[in-house]
Amino acid sequence: MSSRKSKSNNLIQAEYLSQVQRILRERFCHQSPHSNLFGVQVQYKHLIELLKRTAIHGESNSVLIIGPRGSGKTMLINHALKELMEVEEMSENVLQVHLNGLLQINDKIALKEITRQLNLENVVGDKVFGSFAENLSFLLEALKKGDRTSSCPVIFILDEFDLFAHHKNQTLLYNLFDISQSAQTPVAVIGLTCRLDILELLEKRVKSRFSHRQIHLMNSFGFPQYLKIFKEQLSLPAVFPGKIFAEKWNENVQSLSEDRSVRDVLQKHFNVSKSLRSLHTLLMLALNRVTPSHPFMTAADLMEANQLCSMDSKANIVHGLSVLEICLIIAMKHLNDIYEEEPFNFQMVYNEFQKFVQRKAHSVYNFEKPVVMKAFEHLQQLELIRPMERTSVNAQREYQLMKLLLDNTQIMNALQKYPNCPTDVRQWATSSLSWL
Amino acid sequence: MAYCPTRLRTRQTYSWVDKPLDRKLHYQTYKEMSVKIEGRLPEIDLQVGQFVLIEGDDDENPYVAKLVELFEDDSEPYSKKRARVQWFIRFCEVPVCKQHLLGRKPDAQEIFWYDYPACNSNINAETIIGHVQVVALAPDEVIPMDLKNEKTFFVKLSWNEKKFKPLPPELFAQLDKLQEGNPRCQKSVEAKTKSTESPSWTTAERVVKRIESRHSTSKSRQTPSHPVTPRARKRLELSSFPRTHNTRISQQTSWASLESPGRMKRKVAFSEITSPSKRSQPDGPQNSSPALRTPEKAGEIQQCCAEDDKKPSPDGCMILRTRVAALKTTETSEERTLTPIKGGQKSSVVPSVILKPENIKMREAKEPVQDEATSTPHRIRRKSSLLTLNRMRQQLRFLGNSKSDQEEEEFLPVAKISASDSEEEEASTPPLPRRTRSNVSRNLHSSMKSSLQTPSKTPKKTPETRTPRHATPRIRSRNLAAQEPANVLEEARLRLHVSAVPGSLPCREQEFQDMYNFVESKLLDHTGGCMYISGVPGTGKTATVHEVIRCLQQASQANDVPPFQYIEVNGMKLTEPHQVYVQILQRLTGHRATAHHAAELLAKRFRTRGSSRETTVLLVDELDLLWTQKQDIMYNLFDWPTHKEARLVVLTIANTMDLPERLMMNRVSSRLGLTRMSFQPYTHSQLQQILVSRLKHLKAFEDDAIQLVARKVAALSGDARRCLDICRRATEICEFSCQKPDSPGLVTTAHLLEAVEEMFSSSYITAIKNSSVLEQSFLRAILAEFRRSGLEEATFQQVYSQHVALCRMEGLPYPTMSETMAVCSHLGSCRLLLVEPSRNDLLLRVRLNISQDDVLYALKEE
Where do Basic and acidic residues bias regions lie (chain B) (predicted)? Predict the structure, then answer.
C-alpha cells in the first residue's frame, strides 16, 4: 500500500518536474518580454516615453540603444513595444518594421524587407519588385507623402545597427534619419548595437541627422543584485499547479542562495561575466541534472555546472591525445623555451623527440619518422599547432614553420590530468634537462 | 494624341497653295498651305485659323496650336516657310510642380490656352504635323465624355504659367467664331468626291497602326466607333504597352461624370431584369461603353447640347477636318452636322455600323423609343450595359468613398475587396461570369493593389498590372488623430524639432540674399548658371536653398520674376550615381526611362531650343555622391547650363569646401565656375538667436540655459541640429524630473547640462567601470604587458600570462584560457579593444581602442 502510494507520489512529482523544466527552460532560452527587467528602469522610461511620443504626438525620433552583448537591449525594446501595444489606441496607430543587420546584409534587401513589412508590396503590384533604384524612390515617396498629424507612425527597429553602417554610402541610414528629421511620415528609428564607437562609424552627414540620443545598458548591478536575479530566475511562479511542490522548490532555491559554496560559484561566475545570458547557461546546465530521483537542485549541481562552463576547451583535446603526440607537444614546448617563441618545423621537433627517446629508450618506443610525421599532422588538424604561412604544394612539409597554440601552463595542467602518463614523459615535460 | 508621325517614317512636303496675300520685303503672307505626305494621295490643307499639331519633344503628345499666320520669310537662311501660332498647352506640359494648381484632375483631352507672351510663337511651318479639333467650352460645362475622338481637344481654361484662369469672354467668342466658320470648311471637304473619303480612311488606318504600336489596348478600345478591322483588333489585343497615366485619369473622370444616384438606381433596376449572359466576353466592358448610355444619360447629353445652343456658339463643338473625324463623329454635335457623316460612314465602315444606329437611337431617347432595333443589338446592349454597370458601380463606390476610407482600402488585401464586391454584386447580378468580375475589380483597384485572385489570361491584363509604376504609395493614415501639445514643454518640443519649418531663417540673411540674387538674375536674364554651396552638416544649406526657392516662387506668383520649374535631387537618395538622370527626367517631365536613355533625353532637351521653355532650377544635394570614375555626371550637370537654350540653373550642395579642386577634373571644375558660397558653422550667438526665434513667445527655457547650450554646441560643431536636439532632450529631462505633471517648471541649466552630458559623454569609461572583474583585470594585464614590452600591441598569449599572474596576485581563481578568450572577445565586441579575428587564437593581436590613461582612470576609481 505504502509503496504504491509512494509510487504515485513519484509520478506526480515527475509530472511536476517536467513542468518545472519546461517553465524554466523557456525562461532561460526565450527572451520573453514577460520576465522582469533588472536595473534598467531609467533607460526603460526614456525609451517608452519616446515611443509614446511618436505614437501619440507623431514626433519623429531616433535613438541608439548601446550595451555589451547580453545586456538586455532586445529585451528592453521588446518590453517597451509590448507595453505600447497593450494600449489599444496605440497598437492600431503604429506600424513596426524590424530589421537585423545580419539578415539584411545590404540596402537592397533591407528595402524589400521594409516594403514587405509595411504591406506596401501590394501597391507595387504583381511585378515582384523593380530595380533597387525604383524600390528606393518608391519607398521614399511613400514615406514622404505623410505628415506629422495624419500619417501612421512607423517604428523602425534596426538590430545589429553597426552592420547597417557598413552598407554602401549608408544610404538606408541617411534616408531613415533624414525622414526622422524632416516633416514627413513620423518615424522612430531605434538602433541596437553593442559597439561603443558606433557614432564614429556614421558618416558625418548621417551623424548630423541622427539625434544623438543614446541609451546605455551597462549591466551596472553588483553581486547582491546578481544573487537576487539568480533567485528570481529559479523560483517557480505562484500559478504553478502543485502548490506544495512549488513551495518546496522555492524554499530550496532560497536555501541555495544562502549556501556558501553556491555563493562562491556564483561569485566566480559573476567575476567572469555579468551578462544574464551566461547565468542562464549556468542554470540550464544545473537544471538538466534535476531528475525525479534527484528532485531538487543542490550546490553540487551548480558547482558541476560551473566547472563545465569554465572548462578549458583545449585541455580536453590534449587529454585525448596519444603518448607520441604528447611527446611531440612537450618537444615543441622545449623548443619554445629555448628559442623564445620562435617558430619551429617538424625536423626540429623530431630531433628533439629523438634526443629524448635515445636517453630514455626503455620507456618510450622509438617510432619511425613517417609515423611521427603522421602524429604531427594530426596535431595540425586539431589546430594545436598552426603553420606560419599558408601551405604551398611544393614546400617540404618537414621544414614548414609552425607555431604552438598551447600555453605552457595549459600543457602542464593537461599533463597532470593525463591518464596513464609515463613518468619519464612527465619528468621530461617539467624540465628538458632532467637527465642530468 | 494618337498621331505621332515622325519625320523618319513619312516624308512630307510642304507647299503654299495660293498666291501670297500680302507681299512685303522678304515677307510673304499666305492663307493656306498644303502638306503632301509621300505615298498618300490627298494633301492636307492647312489654313490660317485652324488648329494644328506641331512636332515637339515628345512624340506621343505633339504640341497643339492655332495657326495665326502663314508666311514665307526670305531672310531666314534655312527654313523659309514660317508660321505664327497661338499655343495651347497640355496638362502634361504644365510643370509638374504646378499641376496641382488646377485643383482637379484634368480630362484626357483637355488643353489650356497658353497665355504667356514670352513664349516664342514663331515656328517653322514644316514642323506642323496635321489638324486637330479644338472645342472651346465655358468653365461650367462638362467635357463630354462620350466623345472618344482622340483628335478633339477641349479648352476651358487658360494657363499663364501661374494659374489657371477661365477663358476671357472675347477669346471665347473668338474661338466660337472659329467653330462656326469651320463646319463650312468641313462641309466643303465632305462635299468633295468619294476620293476624299477613302483617303481619309487610309489615314485613319494609319492611325490604327500607330495605335497598335504606341497606345495601350484599352485606350484604343475605348474609342468604340473606331474602324477596327478584325485583323487590327487581334493585334491590338496582343500589344501590351503600358497604359499611360492619362488613360487612367480619363477613365476615372469619364466615370466620374456619370455619378448620379438616381441614374445609379436605375441602372441597378436595369441589371436585375437582365438575363444571365452566357458567354463571357472579355472585350465587353470596353466595347460597349457607348451602349452604357441608357436613355437617361442620353437625355442628359441632349440637354447639355441644348445648353450649348443657348450659348453664343450654335454648335456644341466645331469639327475640323481631321483624319479620324470622318469616322468618329462627335455625338454631342447637332444632328445637322451628324447627318452627312453618318451617311459617309455607312458607306465606308462596316464594324462601327452596329453601334452607330444605337447611339443615334439613344440620342433621340426623349422621343418615343424606336422599336425598330433588331433583337441582336438590343441584347448586346443589355449584356454590355450590365458589364459596364458593374464597373460603374465600383467606380462610384470608389469615388464616393471618403478619403480616409480610400486610404484604408488600400491596405486591404484584394481578395477581401473583391469578396465584398462580389457580395454586393451577387445581390443584384448573381450570374455574372466570374472572370469578368475580377477583371472589373482589377480595373478599379489595379493602381493600388496587386490582384492575387486570378492568373491573368486576357491580354488586357498585361498593361493593367504595369500601372503600379504610377501608383501613389503612402503609409496608411492613423486612425487616431495626433494629439496636440498639451503644455508649454510639449509645445516647445514641437517647435524645437528639426523638422519644424521656421517662418524665416535667422542668421543666414547674407547667404540667402546672395543666393536669391544669383537665381533671380539668372531667371530674369533667361540664362543658366551653376553655384556651389559648401558647409559642414547642419549649417542650413539645404534649408536656405529651400527658402530661396520658396521666396522666388512667391515672387513669380506676383509676376516679379518669370516662372520657373524647381527640381531637387539628392545624391544620398540614389542607389547609384547615374540614377540622377532618371530622377531629373521624372521630375521634369513625369516620364520614366533607363539611366542611359534619360541622359540622352535630358541632353536633347537642354541642348535644343524649346519653344515654350521656362527656366529650370535644379538643386543637387550631396554632390560628392555623384562622383564617378569618368565624372560624366558632374560634367553633364555643369555643362548643360552653359548652353543658351537650356535655361538651367544648377545649385549644388556638398560638405567640403575644396571638393571642386580635390575631386573634380579640370574640365568639370572649370564648368562649375567660381560662384561659390560657403556656409560657416554657426557661432554661439547665432545658435542662440535661432533658439530664441524658435521659442518666440514661449517661456520654456531659462535665458542662461539657452546661452549655455548655444556655447556648448558652437564649441563642439556649430551644428544647429545638435543644438535643437539637445534642447528637445532637455525638455524631456525637465518633464521627468518635475513632480507635478501639469505645470512643469522652466528648463534650467542643470537639465541642459544633463542632456549635453548624455549626448556627448564618452561611454567607454562607464563601460569599463561596469565591466566584470575578470574583464577589468584583463585590461590591467594589457596595460602591464604594454608597459613591459613598450609597444602598443601585444599578442593574446603574452597578455594571458600577465593576466594569470595578476589574478594570482589579487587572489582571484585561476582563469582558464577559454574564459580569458571569452573575456577578450567580449571586450573586443564592445570595441574597448581592437582584436584580430579569433581564429588566430593565441597569436591574435590585441590593442586598446582608448588611451591607456582613460583605462587607468576608469580602473582606479573604485
Answer: 206-215
Phi, psi of B832 (to 5 degrees): -75, -35
| Whether B474 contacts A145, CB under 8 Å | yes
Q: Hey, what CATH class is A40-216 in?
A: alpha beta
Nearest residue to B653 via CA among B514, B580, B545, B579 = B545
Amino acid (1-letter code) at residue B284: G
pLDDT of amino acid B358:
42
Asked if residues B254 and B397 have their Cβ atoms less than 8 Å apart, the reply is no
Cα(B695)–Cα(A262) distance, integer angstroms: 59
Over 50: is that where the pLDDT of B409 sits?
no
Q: Which residues contact A336 (CB under 8 A, 6 or more apart)?
A: A342, A344, A404, A408
A68 with B410: Cβ contact below 8 A: no
Residue-averaged pLDDT of chain B: 68
Report pLDDT for B177: 62
Q: Which residue of A has its CA nearest to B474?
A: A142
Q: Are B475 and A154 spatial neighbours (Cβ–Cβ below 8 Å)? A: yes
Closest Cβ–Cβ partner in A133, A146, A409 for B474: A146
Quick: pLDDT tens for A197-251. Answer: 999 999 989 999 999 899 998 888 889 989 988 988 888 888 888 888 888 899 9
Residues of B in contact with A163 (CB under 8 A): none
Q: For the segment A77-104, what is each residue's pLDDT rounded down to a tens digit? A: 998 998 888 887 777 778 899 999 999 9
Q: Residue B454's closest chain A neighbor by CA?
A: A126
Residue B645 to chain A, least CA–CA distance (Å): 30
Q: Which of B475, B817, B830 has its CB closest to that of A314?
A: B817
Give the number of other CB atoms < 10 A from CB of residue B219: 26
For B617-650, what is each residue's pLDDT tens digit? 999 999 988 989 989 999 999 998 888 888 889 9
Question: Looking at CA atoms only, how far is residue B207 from chain A in angstroms?
Answer: 31
Domains of chain A, residue spans: 40-216, 221-310, 315-430
CB spacing of B480 vs A92 below 8 angstroms: yes
Taking contacts as CB-CB distances below 8 angstroms, the residues of chain A near B402 are: none
Residue with the bigger pLDDT between B286 and B386: it is B386
* pLDDT at position B584 over 80: yes
pLDDT at B802: 92
Contact map slice: B 434-463 vs A, CB within 8 A: 446, 448-451, 456
The answer to whether the CB atoms of A218 and B816 lie below 8 A apart is no
Return the number of CB contacts < 8 Å for A and B. Answer: 253
Q: What are φ and ψ of residue B479, in 5° steps?
A: -75, -40
Residue B266 has pLDDT above 60, yes or no: no
Chain A residues in contact with B411 by the CB 8 A cut-off are: 119, 122
CB-facing half-sphere around the CA of B731: CA atoms within 13 A: 25
User: So what's the pLDDT on residue A316?
Assistant: 83
Please report how many Cα atoms fall inside a 13 Å half-sphere around the Cα of residue B48, on the Cβ side.
16
Contacts of A141 in chain B (CB under 8 A): 472-473
Q: Judge: domain A315-430, CATH 1.10.10.10.
A: yes
Write out pLDDT tens, residues B351-381. 333 333 344 444 444 444 444 443 444 444 4
> From the list B497, B729, B817, which residue is nearest A312 (CB)?
B817
Are residues A216 and B766, on separate chains, in Cβ contact within 8 Å? yes
Considering CB atoms only, which of A143, A178, A272 is closest to B772? Answer: A272
What are the chain A neighbours of B483 within 8 Å (beta carbons)? 56-57
Q: Render the burial of A36-68: b for 16+ CB within 10 Å, e for the rest.
A: eebbbeebbebbbebbbbbbbbbbbbbbbbbbb
CA neighbor of A233 nearest in space, from A283, A306, A301, A294: A283
Query: Could you tell me which of A38, A395, A413 has the C-alpha nearest to residue A227?
Result: A38
